[in-house]
Amino acid sequence: MTSNKTELLVPAGSVDSFRAAIRGGADAIYMGLKQFNARVRANNFSEDQLPAILQEAHKNKVKIYITLNTVIKQKELPRLLDFMAYLEKVGVDAIIVQDWGVFSLARQYFPKLVLHASTQMGNHNSVGVQHAAKCGFQRVVMARELTMTELEHVAQKSVLELEVFIHGALCYSFSGQCFFSSYIGGRGANRGMCSQPCRMAYTDKQEQKYLFNLKDNQQLDNLDGLQKAGIHSLKIEGRMKSADYVFQVASAYRLALDHPEQKAEAEAMLQLDFGREKTGYFLDQNVSEALAENSNTGILMGNVIRAAKSEITFFSAQELQANDRLRIRLLKSNQTVNLKLDDFWEENGRYSLPWTGKERISSGDEIYWIGRRQESFPSRLPKVPAPTVSLAFQQKTKILQQQAFRTKSTSQGSLFIRIDDTDWFPFIRAEEVECIILSLGRKQLEELNFDQKFIQKNKAKLAIELPKFIAEGQIEAWQKAIRKAEENGIQHFFLSHLSQQLLISRSSRFSCNEQVYVYNDAASKFLNSEGAQHFCYSIENDFENLKALQNRQGIVLLHTTPELFYSRMPVKLEQDKNQFKDEFSKTYTKQNKDGITIVTPDRPVNLFQYKNQLLKEGFNHFMFDLKHEVPNPKLIKKIFLNYRSGDPIQPSTIFNFKKGLQ
């Protein structure tokens, strides 16, 4: 979709950064309130502040988009309804959503809200955009992992506004598809609680390395191409960044957009964003240098040359000023110390400053310049009356009751089994399962012999699972592979993205795997209304949230090896088995499948000991996921025996099932 003017979309996580965004030339600002947003560690804004924010922004002809881009637990739905009613009442310009339940409730009950599909929704091709248009979204925020050619093709076919990130931090995994933080500590990235495991050092062949630590995104050189492609909105990342960062980066891109001939000046301004090293990432079609050797932000000034008990001395080629912010990286511990340059002495680039901190600083420790206040921005808002908006208890109760739906159910439990290798066929007793899900790569599917005895005998029980990522240039090949499967009698498909229903024939059935997230009744009701035969609960879900649901027809994964990272970014390991360890000596495995890097733990998630409790609570559909397992008759026999006895497979983990998802 083309537009006369390209929008510059700027982040704000505080009042002063909101003012910095306006002064820096933003056309629109995205921000979160205190709840339901993917940057809970930012200061964010209160509901009482929002009317003043909107008044000031609209006076400056700047739009305000509110991030509602997390998955929502069932018990949070009443509060969510009040929240969306308030956003509709005060007149925000759009909300950015991830959860299909949030989308469905907004569309049904708050029709004045304009909806943008968050990058967390995983839209990465024209099929995703086409489906978003069908659903009623006005805009789609595209995945960061697309090439310029792919974006051009998507834009040519799009009737929606497209938004692309042009600057700021990059997640290693596809947005919305990272479970590493959740796995190691219950802090869900899809809940805005990411502990940033991609920024941590790992052990590869006894050497500490930053294996997944991406440089920062910078697309100054690609602005012209993005505009020519018809990208409507260019987005800067950074709701947790300072007002200085917001102003500096917004001003640079404003200059480059309005005066392309001054791009060199804009580039010089961006050198003082105090972020990480920069990469053009997939838009530059060269990711070989996209990983950074350490996770520090800021400009490396040099090293400590002398560290006494009360004084630190270092050289800097850059002239520093009072109140500049510095960070010292302690090489022995890899810890960091932040300080402000107040009382200091300088001569010919040699700086000395007093030090009274507890940390032990040594010669050789690295000095980073991490900030400079060039302008000040007021941090107080005028008092603008905020409306009191709260739906009646009876109204909310009725809405929530309407999210329930009924399907046929079994009391004993139906079993689904998922495999990624047809060598499992001889070991599967098909009469014991309702469905056998084949999770195959495209070439595997193209080469699959549909005439083999197992397939012919169990055709009615087979389903093909589509992958999480289908590149724009591979859509046609996948459609051909799907048609071949359908022509050979396979009529059931498990989708990893809801838009993939557009790839299958209308006569075929579809279900949704655990990547089409269900954390609440509104989401499962929407999938049911879309025609999904089955849906799965997320692997990071917890028992408390499951028990809060009315709709208990979903599939619970009782045995699975979770994909913690799922990325288009290649990573090279020196260790022969492609394994690495974290700081707690836990082992993980990296593999590459169809150009995608997948990281898994060294043990499965297994919930067999909770089977009877789940059955008692009305959950009757279970899955054994054998992806990432070597075909083995002893293993599958043990899985079925332990399922019946309720004994867990060991070693294993229960993920967040009991400790809870934050």
Automatic annotation (TrEMBL):
GO molecular function ontology, one term from the record: peptidase activity
Keywords: Hydrolase, Protease
Coiled-coil segments: none
UniProt entry tagged with the keyword Hydrolase: yes
One Gene Ontology term from the biological process aspect of the record: proteolysis
Pfam families: Peptidase_U32 (PF01136)
Organism expressing this protein natively: Mangrovibacterium diazotrophicum
Protein name: Putative protease
